[in-house]
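Whether sequence alone determines local backbone shape is best considered at the level of individual chains. The sequence in question and its structure tokens are set out directly beneath this paragraph.

===
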Amino acid sequence: RHFYPRWYKLYPWLEYSPKADSCFCFPCMLYSINSSSPFCNVGINSWKRCDFKFERHSDTATHKNNVQSWQADLAQTQPKVDELISHQRAEKRKRDEEMMELNRAALTRIAHLILTLVRQNCPLRGHDESASSSNKGNFLEFFETLVTYDPVLSEWRTKSTQRNATYTSPRIQLEILGLLSDYRFLKFVLCERANASVISSNIVRVIKELGLDIQHLVGQAYDGAATMGGCYSGVATRIIAENPKAVYVHCFAHRFNLVILGGLQQMDCVLEFFEKLQQVYAFFNRSPLKTSIFEDEQRKANVKVRHLKQLCDTRWLARDDALRTFLDIQMPLLSTLSRLQRGVDDIGDPSSRHKAQSFYQYFGSLDTVVTALSMRHILSMTTPLHTELQRPYLDLLKASEMIVGLKDQMKHLVSAKCNVFQEIYSKSTQNLASHIRDERMRTTRGQTVQRSENDHKAIFDTMVMKLISLLDTRFSSQTCEPLSSLSALCSLFATERDIYFQCFPESESSVHSKLSWLAVFFHLDACDVICQFDLVCRLFHTKSVNVNNIKMLAKIATQMKLANSYPEITKLFLIAATLPVTSASAERSFSKLKLIKTSHRSTMGQEFLNQTTLLSCNRDIDIPFTNIIAQFTSKTRRLKF
């Protein structure tokens, strides 16, 4: 026989002592004075007929009074034990939730700080980040400043019990950067050698590392260098050997730059003008005194003080800016050169006076002014297209339309009806009459004749005709058959199909032949593509769907869920929207690389470089910090989030 724990439920007042192996009455021990009951003194340890003894004690008046006193005291002094435990748990849960919310708020601020510094191309780490360092690097120094003025970070720093969980270490910075930078730009890859074999193998390797199938690649865009676009062993050719559907696109922006470069550099007068412009830039840039005189002449002429701009050897868009600046300040420039050649300001350098005289004679001639204004008019037509072709969201249809529009505009320049050059020549002679000298042209016999307006007109027409010829060559349909075919087909959605074919009945067979060629090229069913194309054309025109560009065409096809009914032609639309027109936006990452990978950051790792460059390139992307924090906190951390 022994004590049974089930007695606790039958007699809540019962208390058992394992040491004495006896039972006691808790309220009677607490409230009885000088009681002789064994439940209050020595206890009950005879287990025979214990139930009877417990019942008999429960019926006594003394016990009942003691139980009432006990219950009254419990009700007045403290809540029940289970209620007390539940309340404590609720309080702890509330404190934990508040701390988790505070941790998330602090982590969000840390991520924001990292993103801001990276987008400004600022280094994060310092050479010495120890507690005794006077300069711990940009991240830690800015973080300490935020802690001083931001109440959330200040409270987090005070309440955080994990002193070794500050979440400001380089490892945490790199992890947060990895979450922030999961967007468009992929990475920089270090190439052992700059040849087509190494570059193409690295491209294929990265595609596989990203879990992508190279057979799904439909387009690749590079510049026209032999390494990238060579028809025998270039990168594009090697990629096409892996996947014949990977259309190579010679970047439209690079191609157009070659048109301007090739057309204008063949003109001796244009080359001479820009060489002289670069020389006069260096002439003033190397001397603060000459620059001061130049600024003084601009103030006298009541024009905004500006400086000549340096030219770029390859980017003709930059030359347009330099030309605009030159024409805006040409009169003060000639006045400055006149002062310098006459020695009015006591320069004291004979070579400088000689150069100033040479520059004055050149930039004050009618030939130079006509050349500059002619170039200004031509570049004013080409620069908008040059800028537009560098936009990342440009599609095939819009690019083709803009190039055709430029060619038509240039053809109008050389037509008999156009009087643009006459206006240029008149402006040259009237506005700059005080400085312009008559330019004479030497003949083969040593005689000199005055250069006439017709001579200048012939030079102007030659420049324009060369540009038109190069546009026809560089942007012909044979240059990239898939691009031209897709562009021609998608243009039908911007017109009434039936009216178009009524006016040009021979075009319907041409469209079907292009569709068949594209279907074979992209491994689609030719019969289905032709039938589905006709049906989708009629569907769009029946519903009055307005299509302005290829990307809109693909978007509408996706919204209307045409892939369910017309899968083959929908694939063709998506391919047309995916094919790259320009690689200029991708090459801007090289400019960012020059800003980020400086001599002061020579120890930067490859992973850190990729992530910082990615964020710097994609400044326009809104970072979803809620998702970033959720991904970061999904791993086991020292702090609760």
Notes: The first helix runs from residue 7 to 10. The chain is about 65% helix and 5% strand. Residues 437-449, 496-506 have pLDDT under 50 and may be disordered.
